[in-house]
Amino acid sequence: MEQIIANGLYLGAQYALIALGLTLIFSLMNVLNFAHGQMYVFGGFVTYTVVVQLGLPFIVGLFASAIVLAVMGAAIEKFLFAPVVRRSKRDESTMLLAAGIAFFLDAVILLFFGEKQRGVPKIVNGVLNLDMRIIMPYDRILIGVLAILLIVAFIAFMHYSRTGRAMRALAQDKVAAQLMGVNVSRYSMIGFALGAMLAGLVGGLLVTITGVNLGMGGPTSVKAFLMIMIGGAGVISGAIAGGFILGMMESVGLTVLSAYGDITYLVIFASLMVFLAVRPQGLMGKPWG
Amino acid sequence: MQKRTFLKFSALAAATVLSLPLMAYAQNATLKIGFVGVTSGPAASWGVSNQRSMETRAAWLNELGGVKIGDKTYNIEIVPFDDQKDPKRAIAGMEKMAQDGVHYVVGPNVDDGAAAVRPVAEQNGIMYFPYAFPKELFTAPASNAILGMVANYQSGPAIYKFLKENKGVKKVAFVAANESDPLSQRESGIAAAEALGLEVVSGNVTYQVDTTDFTPVLLPVIQASPDLLVLSGVSPANAPQLIRSARELGYTGLISTETGQDASVLQEGAGELADGFISVGGASTPELASETMTEFVDRYTKMFGEYNDESNTKVYALEYILETLKANPAAIENVDEFKKTMDTFEAANPFMKGDAKLKYVGMTSFGQKRQVSVPLVVNEYKGGKFETLFVGQVD
């Protein structure tokens, strides 16, 4: 039981961090960023390149992923999403654009980083073994702690910095925020860059544990959407709750249901359908959006 | 004036002499060989290694002046199609090959794709070389598919027998991705293990292909305390993570698979935790590889930046097609001629040392020769590279 909880917490921390970037972008721009998973993969490959190919320390790789993805996110918002949002009132325009960017990034990743699974050597060796009740490698513990620290830092940034407050105002009421002098286009760009940066950071963190490959983007996006649907789209605390709930459900399901075959995600999806029928706005979302 | 004329003629003669090889190269006819397989998504590694092997070998042969088949010399052109591991796309790919007049296709890489293209291939006179194992594709009345590698139901029993006799394995556990190929490989693996008298202590644990944390997946398997953990049909992307999770959970037994793997991927993803991992490979270990194989690896690396160990097996299909066509040039436009030649075909294997032969096999498994004869090389991963554990032969 202790092992199941430990696995769930570790999975939840990484999932929450993935969902945060997605929900931030959605709350600011009402854009469903289908390319979020590809950004995560790109971040993993950047860290891999810096650490394995260039032989630089892991922390440099992590910073490189954050910077590259932030710049990429800002550019995507400024040159692609902003013009489309300005010219089109139809939500599907941004959805199609996001799907197009996802395919484009897949092709770019194949071109620059190849088809192989890539990984960064373990950053910490050794395994914590508490009388076989909890077995957890030290590198997972470190990555889990780093993920939680990043989540705390992100929440603090959103609450106490001027930029964070401006973005929260924008997410709550765009018109009111504009009337109060918030520069919508500037903060939308910063928000998108921050969301992409979070995706890159998670990719960089997890490349030491799970590795990274070309095909991970799509499934990662699906899981991220699942989390924000559980927690409530556009709500920061909802994304965190959704991440931990999904992590715990996955851990419990894979252990308890393993005797019945691979039905964990079947059960999770079925539960989500029932849950959304009862509470379509998710745990912490508002029914009006 | 005479001097100017002389210079003109000299320049013309020099240009003519210099362009002669180029003209010969350009004058060659073109022989199109298709590839329909997965070159994107999580399993991209399987198809990309196929396509790049073909492109490397084709470029090499073209550089040597082309391939002489009958009276004509051909430049080889590879026509690739990414089926995205989707049977519908695989059918579209095979239809495109038919429209382009291609009669020989390498791929698809997975069971459902290979089964889906069968009607298109048979109706359009296309021979294809799948890297997929359904027996009905290779047994009569099917006759257009030729298995491009060693099937798991051929390698699995050999590996388990070796490990039972040499490493004292008694209890086996199987884990597979929840997809048709790995699941069918798991079923035949369980049957082979039971036939050898091994106890299967876990045989129903599966995982999603997009799983990123295998600790919860492997926990119940490791608790069953197997001597051997078989990763049925595992993709190169998942293998290092599964090995790493198993070792981190304290598993000290043997781990094996019947699929081809890449040493650099194992090194990066699992490091020394992958030491002792047993998998099936081709003929690239120093004990087996010929000079031609070594040069192929060099050329592949130069062309694409990095070699993929899966190509040790994937290098063969194009060679079989070309050598069989050389043996019977009428087969270029008529696959029935190709089929006739297969029964007696034999040529030197350029990729292996010694007197190894290229020939079609499969009588025991399929009742007809519908499999390329590649060596069954069982490797053990150690210190960043593969070492040959034992070599077998299939028929």
From TrEMBL, chain A:
Compartments in which it is found: Cell membrane
Family under the similarity heading: Belongs to the binding-protein-dependent transport system permease family. LivHM subfamily.
Assigned keywords, A-Z: Amino-acid transport, Cell membrane, Membrane, Transmembrane, Transmembrane helix, Transport
Protein's name in the database: Branched-chain amino acid ABC transporter permease
Domain of life: Bacteria
Xref: CDD domains: TM_PBP1_LivH_like
This protein's record includes keyword Transmembrane helix: yes
Residue stretches spanning the membrane: 12-33, 45-75, 95-113, 141-160, 189-212, 224-247, 259-278
The keyword Transport belongs to this UniProt entry's keyword annotation: yes
Main location group: membrane
